[in-house]
Request: fold
Amino acid sequence: MKEEAALARTVIKKRLAGQPAPDIWFLIILMLLVCYGLVMLFSAGYAVALYRRGDAYTYIRPQLLFAAFGAAAMYAASLVDYHIWHKLAWPIMGVSLALLAIVLFMPEYNGCKRWIVLPGLGTLQPSEIAKFAVVLVFAHIISLNHDRMQTFATGVLPFMVILGAVTVLMLLEPHLSGTLLILGIGAVLMFVGGTGLKWFALAGIAGAGAIAAAVVLLPELVPYAMGRLSSWRDPFADPLGAGHQTIQSLYAIASGGAAGLGLGNSRQKYLYVPEPQNDFIFSILCEELGFVGAALTVVLFLLLFLRGMSIAVRARDKFGALLAVGFVVQVVLQAVLNIAVVTNTIPNTGISLPFFSSGGTSLMMLLGEMGIVLSVSRQADAGNGNVQIL
Reply:
């Protein structure tokens, strides 16, 4: 047994030694975001954790564990040839759709059904897996049919069917923010993949029709959506109800000023902002670290985007380029939407801040996806580079 274990270690070491290095700058930026997020999660969440659970480490303890598992998954994914995801794209999409259907039979939390309860293990959020599946399937289809993307049958229809199925299931939860994010990711991949611009114009018309159909077929969404719009336009009209979260978030941001009150010194996290460890963690960051901390957060996400696009441009093939674009755009678009919600730029959609908000499924999936981007960068460095996306 000892000889076999030694032989296995030797084989692994040789294989790792032959692996080209990943994009080190992308990795550094990513690790800075993860560490920054963990620090802010503990600072923003310990007060509400102590109040709700009697343990200040309720949120940070599992998040650290998931970060460790996610880092391991990221490392493993970075070593695997990303072309294996060609074969796994459709099976993962099938599993994703099944989980989106199963979650509809789960108990409600805050009026939504977004989590599958796993006894003894915690919860699983199927929408996170759906984002991953959509990127995989879209990259798979586009890379195989890139020369026919201008046609409706190839460049529009299959994507419309996939997005339609995912959208209906997510609206039934309801999960408007996740739906908008997935539609945005899909649109970006179709645009980068070469879908004709005329189809996007027609999609806008079809989207308006879909919204009208949703109003008729899913009437329970109307008061849900209208309530969000009303509280966005004038949160002070209902300061103790629908507008409470937004108002407290704006108070936190305003009180932070230029340099902030200091790490750990937020006042709004003491049960004023309802979800300081999750959707509204950015407001606590602004209060404690001020404009400087907020600007640093935005800069890190911007650098991750730019470096990710650099990896996509240097990818050896279209599949790798589309994977890099899809996963990086997912992170950055989600961050933009979260910051827009927290600052009341757009209506409250209940979307988390990547790498910062509490949530094990999200963190592990994000780190695993970043591992795939690193895998693309390994092969880009090994190849001759300069492969065009379009």
